[in-house]
Automatic annotation (TrEMBL):
Keywords: Signal. This is Phosphate ABC transporter substrate-binding protein. Gene3D superfamilies: Periplasmic binding protein-like II (3.40.190.10). It comes from the Bacteria. Residues 1-22 form the signal peptide. The lineage of its organism: Bacteria, Pseudomonadati, Pseudomonadota, Gammaproteobacteria, Alteromonadales.
Length: 139
């Protein structure tokens, strides 16, 4: 009986962990056919890459630091904490070498902006994705 209870407990813990880590999707306009790997997405969101592979200027859209999608994106794609990113962008802005991605407050705003402009790229919670955008990577 104890073994059975422990198995159920382990299963419930795994399910809860999976729902807490819902995933983050990197999205572009459906007409964008650029191929982007994790390294390219990292370069775009750190200001090191200025164009898509199709040559169009890239406009990255982020979310506020308090967004769960931002935490997950920063950790899984940028490999940085919010504090590290703030310091990184402060230095670039101060030296005139960069501007951080535009920030909006939630998934719906990112989807709206990306769906309206083929030159944008953003990230949202995987569960928020709809047919108006195309997922190019999921983490």
């Amino acid at each position: 009986m104890l073994k059975h209870s422990l198995s159920i407990l382990a299963l419930l813990t795994a399910l809860l962990s999976a729902s807490a880590q819902a995933g983050v999707a990197v999205i572009v306009h459906p007409s964008n056919d650029s191929a982007l790997d994790v390294a390219a997405i990292n370069r775009i969101f750190t200001g090191k890459e200025k164009a898509f592979t199709n040559g169009n200027k890239v406009i990255p859209i982020g979310q506020e630091a308090t967004s769960p999608a931002t935490d997950e994106f920063n950790e899984k794609v940028l490999n940085k904490t919010a504090a590290q990113l703030k310091a990184y962008w402060s230095k670039l802005v101060f030296t005139g070498k960069g501007t951080p991605p535009k920030e909006v407050s939630n998934d719906a705003e990112v989807i709206k902006l990306v769906a309206a402009n083929p030159d944008t790229i953003g990230y949202v919670s995987s569960s928020a994705v709809d047919g108006s955008v195309k997922v190019i990577q999921e983490f």
